[in-house]
Amino acid sequence: MKTIAILVPAAAFLLSGAAAFADEYQTDAGRIMGMNAQTGAIQLDDGHSYTISNPVLLNGVNPGEHVIVTVSPSHTVGFQEDTGQFDGSGQQD
Fold it and tell me: For 25-93, CATH number?
């Protein structure tokens, strides 16, 4: 019984820290409607615009592709292609 009394508060403490960490990063997802590969600027179909911190990451990315954008607490902006856009048929949504 003492073990449970110790573990429950410890678990609650760890989970509260994980939730705080997750809140520090912001994410957005959508289809790229416009982009400038030289400056790293992209605009998503939801109207949000971002400037990717490392524009080289945009090499090979085309307007119309689904991406997930992540903004770190230090305002570094990165992205990855949204693999959920593919249904396995070889065709994009």
Answer: 2.40.50
